[in-house]
Design goal:
Elements (H helix, E strand, L loop, with lengths): L4 H12 L3 H23 L10 H13 L9 H23 L13 H4 L7 H17 L1 H12 L4 H8 L3 H19 L15
Helix pairs in contact: 1-2, 2-3, 3-4, 4-6, 4-7, 6-7, 6-9, 7-9, 8-9
Length: 200
């Protein structure tokens, strides 16, 4: 993830300055990184899954290229946008594949299944997406860590570097976020909300 950092920054500056060619150069530069992220997203999938890594990267490219509103700042901003865009792609994919209703109130939702982009669990994935929005209202950093680790496929070390925080902080927030999301996904039928994430 630390490779080509200087080149990425230069290209982002050129994009901000209106250099149309720079975006193509940037996408070519980070293609391998994006493809690795896509493989990490889909590594637990069945071989016949309809969304393959190359298709995911191609869809990502299309969405980024047609969005002129993005004001690129730096490498952190780039990968944050990538993680959010991948999330949107996967949510759209799950919605298109979802022929199930929301799990019944008495049915436990496995957080680990939610963290797998699978045709077998589209309903759970959509519920996780809703829960992540709620987490962001309580603790934006924890939500960002989930997005970078889950949707962008970054490691603990890469996430710490991206957010400029300690690895132990990422590990703690990752564990707390998973616990809170699991609590929310399995809250009682009466709808009482889980305890808010602990401040750090």
């Amino acid at each position: 993830m630390d490779e080509n950092i200087g080149q990425i920054t230069v290209l982002l500056r050129r994009i901000r300055a209106g250099d149309d060619q720079a975006q193509g150069e940037l996408l070519a530069l980070v293609y391998d990184q994006f493809h690795r992220i896509a493989r990490q997203h889909l590594q637990a999938e069945r071989p016949e899954h309809t969304l393959q890594p190359t298709a995911l990267v191609n869809e990502l490219y299309l969405r980024l290229k047609i969005d002129p509103s993005i004001d690129w700042q730096d490498r952190k901003h780039l990968f944050s946008v990538v993680s959010v865009t991948m999330r949107r792609i996967l949510v759209d994919h799950a919605r298109a594949r979802n022929a199930q209703r929301r799990p019944s109130p008495n049915q436990r939702v496995d957080i680990d299944k939610c963290f797998v982009h699978s045709n077998d669990h589209p309903a759970e994935f959509l519920i996780l997406d809703e829960a992540l929005d709620r987490l962001a209202q309580h603790d934006p950093r924890q939500a960002e860590i989930v997005r970078l680790r889950f949707f962008a496929g970054l490691t603990i070390e890469e996430t710490a570097s991206m957010l400029d925080i300690a690895e132990r902080t990422v590990k703690r927030d990752w564990q707390m976020a998973r616990a809170w999301l699991s609590s929310l996904l399995n809250q009682p039928p009466d709808g009482s909300p889980p305890t808010e994430p602990l401040a750090v």
